[in-house]
Amino acid sequence: MSPSLAAGLSAVVLDIEGTTTPVEFVHAVLFPYARARVRSFLESHAAEQGVQADLDRLRQEHAAAVAPLPPPWPDQPPATRLVGAVAYVLWLMDRDRKSTGLKALQGRIWEAGYLSGELKGQVYEDVPPAFARLAAGGRRLAIFSSGSVLAQRLLFRHSTAGDLSGFIHAYFDTTTGPKQEAASYSRITEALGRPAAEVLFVTDTPGEADAARGAGLRTALCVRGGRGEPGPHPIIGSMAELA
Question: HSE of 230 in the Cβ direction (CA atoms, 13 Å)?
Fold first, then answer.
């Protein structure tokens, strides 16, 4: 880790897509897996309390939607309600919306795949040794992703490199707040019990890095396979540069 990033650092918060995990795994494996199973999953699990909570959140989002309007979600009869829920979920997925209800539901669908071994969370080769060295150095490690906390835990617990969850102190998703709003990062540093100036946030998205810096965090942009343009955030090419 460069001296400018390491000095006085007590915690590191990481994005997932493009930072610890290939974007292709999320878009070419996880998303199609959930899409193919959303209807059958809701048919089997819609009565469960957690799934009901996800559906209630999705219905609230649907009711508050503005143009472009999503497909209708009728109240009656039950079969029609299910069709409406599935149509709205697919509409959100088609637009890659960072819907909290959608992300929670996706996590529940992926859970069965991870537990059966059908899914394995992909991580870059430099991630496991970096996690180990950060932990050995006494730095708390946290994850902040638009995917649900459940989805995050599953990815690292059932990763291609084995169970990495023991290195991770905390997980944060969009229930903490949007990733491009500074207030979200203030909530994270408060939850970690660390001053913002002692926390480094690493992401591949400049807007997220801007928001974190606005909350007083240190920042780094992860640019894999290429060279980023000079800017306000230090650029790293792999997790090895963090440890």
Answer: 0
